[in-house]
Amino acid sequence: MTFPNDENGSVLAEMQEAGIDLSKSLTVEFFQLFEQEKDARALAEFVQNSDMNAVVNVHPDQTPNVWDVDCQIEMVPSYENIVAMEEKFEKLANKFNGFNDGWGVQQDD
C-alpha cells in the first residue's frame, strides 16, 4: 500500500513497514494543546459528551503553562480516516483556543 507524500503518509508508511496491520482497528490517539486549563477541560467535556466514543485524558504538558488533551479513538487508521479525524480535532481545538498537535497509535501486544 502506498501513501501520499506528507507527514501522515510517512507515519503510516513507517507503521506498515514495522509490521502493523493498518486494515485492523487500532487505538489512535490525537493530541491537542492549550495554554489555559479551562480551555483544555472545556474541549475534553465537549468530546466526552459527543458521539465520538473517545477516551479523553487532560494533563499538564512538559512545557510550563501548557495543557494536553489526549483523545483515544478506536478506528481503522487509513490515510483518509486519519486526515478526517485530524481536521475534526483541529476545528474543535481552535473552537476552544487550542490546536491539534498530531496523533499516534498505541499497540496492544
UniProtKB/TrEMBL annotation:
Residues 5-105 form the Regulator of ribonuclease activity B domain. It comes from the Bacteria. Gene3D superfamilies: RraB-like (3.30.70.970). Pfam families: RraB. InterPro entries: RraB-like_sf (IPR036701), RraB_dom (IPR009671). This is Ribonuclease E inhibitor RraB. It comes from Thalassotalea nanhaiensis. The lineage of its organism: Bacteria, Pseudomonadati, Pseudomonadota, Gammaproteobacteria, Alteromonadales.
